Amino acid sequence: EGVPPSSEQRDTQALLSRTQAMELRQRDYHVDRPLLNQEQLEELGSRSPAPVTLQWRTWFRCSRARAQALLLQYLPVLAWLPQYSVRDWLLGDLLSGLSVAIMQLPQGLAYALLAGLPPVYGLYSSFYPVFVYFLFGTSRHISVGTFAVMSVMVGSVMESLAPDDAFLLARDDTRVQLASTLSVLVGLFQVGLGMVHFGFVVTYLSEPLVRAYTTAASVHVFISQLKYVFGLHLSSRSGPLSLIYTVLEVCWKLPQTVVGTVITAIVAGVVLVLVKLLNEKLRRHLPMPVPGELLTLIGATGISYGVGLQQAFGVDIVGKIPAGLVPPKAPHPQLFAKLLGNAFAIAVVGFAIAISLGKIFALRHGYRVYSNQELVALGLSNLLGGIFQCFPVSCSMSRSLVQESTGGNTQVAGAVSSFFILIIIIKLGELFQDLPKAVLAAVVIVNLKGMVMQFTDVFSLWKANRMDLLIWVVTFVATILLNLDLGLAVAVVFSLMLVVVRPHWLPPMPDTDIYRDLAEYSGAREVPGVKVFRSSATVYFANAELYSDSLKQRCGVDVDYLLSQKKKLLRKQELKLKRLQKENKLPKQAAASKGTSISINVNTTVVDIESNNDVEGSKAKVRLEGGGSFRDQEDAKASDMSSLKALGLPQPDFHTLILDLSSFSFVDTVCLKSLKNIFRDFREIEVEVYMAACHAPVIKQLEDGHFFDASVTKQHLFASVHDAVLFALQQQRSSPVNPVLVS
């Protein structure tokens, strides 16, 4: 029942904007209902226990449909390959596969050296696992293969179990044996965890933890390459403080530096940096990046062979690279006990990197990756790769970005790149025998740029979330001092302990109406067009993904499907527009909009089009030098053309989603990103999102994390769920209902 405003309130409201006045008016009410205790509330709402679904019963059901579903689940290539569009995708996948293969060659050689193995085994690891992932993986854009962090973890195991000082002749053979057995054991861990649906284990590696760990690993990588840059022979070290001792030894032996090696590394590094800068400058004008790494390898090999760098200046070279593939070999089970702890750490880190990158690309391109199947796919890649003398692999961020930017659409790009690597192994690999190791070290160091830039996280986390900053610092310091395996264990334990000791806010019962779960209260009634979602626990890095998935499942709308279909239809409209432009069939009325610059944003993909015509796109933003009314018309028309109704897609049966945050006692950076993604995804399907019942400490953390911006303001935040419900109904110009129970 509303309370009429006084004259003083009317004077105040006259000075407020329309939005502020509406917000003030919708709060001028009081709840008029009987006082209820818990027993009366349960009786009024006809409470009964929520139905329990025994999931295990479905596991033992046998049918043809279930068998087919399981086959498609564990062998995804059978699901997407029959639907492969040769006309639309093949050219992009071929170009992308070639671009990635050009990067795979130098990186494979360099990362094998980083792992303490002969360079040719990096080529093997760039072929077998990539092809296996093509069959079993669900991500269309990640580039599986050698990766710096994985290689340095393998190298640490090699230094520990097969140090240089312990061998005269058979060191390489022993290390290959260890690395391949380690790969098999890593694969067994990953496949086993995937089969029992333990893909969620990676959720206990928060984003600050993973970023700090990879940053610390990049420091390990950099230090490990100094012996190749300076041409030094260092003692093998492993365990706590080994990195510190290695730095001290490098400083001690600097007078023994081989000048020719240093000059070779510096020249190669400068060339690589210049080519990367050139690629960034001209990326919009080049169909594919200039292959700086490959050109550097070819040039360095030619100079080394022609000048005789090894004989004349003492520059260490790669040496013999055998042509052809090696036969498969069984692993050595007697080594499992020694490798068990390291294998588990490598398995978890490799999967964490792959699934994190895979989900970024999936979100950007409107499809879904399945964590358990990704775990199985990566595990089979390592398992079968280990049998063929490969070392453990994951996915590379730099290659994945190239695979996406050069037009890669599906896993076919990975199969194409593995085919090119096969040709190199069989015919061209032996041509790089005179390649200086200093050049490979330069390739590794230059590719660390992305991970080294993560040092800026310290400044952003200082402003956004001090607890996450503490996790970052502890992870980094522990990984630097205790080595990669122990550092990871300390980081995980510390981050989980920090969840327990974070300050928790215990709120009083809000003086608003009561909202309960429909599954438990059969007498509850939904507000038409409004969904209220509440979590029973604080959302943080370990359950943020589960929160988002549960929300999408419970709202009754396949959000991911709608987003992907909308994106596909918008792309078709864009291609149709381009064809019309080429065929000069645009209507003459388009001349009025000559020079208009239009930016089409679908999720996180931005396509800039210079156009003389209206553009059918998502969130079209038209930048004109003048004529505000024309701009408004263009914006309205573009919005209409990109609506679900105009695209022929089903519309959700609700217009507002309210997130009840009363159970939140803190928010971390992962929770902030999840909430941002929820706002973005539901707005894309034309559902407005509000937050309610958020406590003061949490609001402060949202502000510190820069959660509020132009798209999500504090006007989307309400003191109670009932406030948000009334405001949503007001916005839709509906007559307000005053329900007792809402799910």
UniProtKB/TrEMBL annotation:
Location, primary (coarse class): membrane
Pfam families tied to this protein: STAS, Sulfate_transp
Single Gene Ontology MF annotation: secondary active sulfate transmembrane transporter activity
Organism this protein belongs to: Capra hircus (Goat)
Compartment list: Membrane
Residue ranges of every copy of the STAS domain listed in the record: 520-728
InterPro entries hit by this protein: S04_transporter_CS (IPR018045), SLC26A/SulP_dom (IPR011547), SLC26A/SulP_fam (IPR001902), STAS_dom (IPR002645), STAS_dom_sf (IPR036513)
Segments traversing the membrane: 109-135, 142-162, 182-205, 254-278, 339-363, 375-395, 407-426, 438-462, 469-501
NCBIfam families, per database record: sulP
Signal peptide: none
Keywords, in A-Z order: Membrane, Transmembrane, Transmembrane helix, Transport
Highest taxon, organism lineage: Eukaryota
Name of the protein in question: Solute carrier family 26 member 6
GO cellular component term, pick one: membrane
Membrane topology field: Multi-pass membrane protein
Keyword Coiled coil in record: no
Alphabetized PROSITE patterns for the sequence: SLC26A, STAS
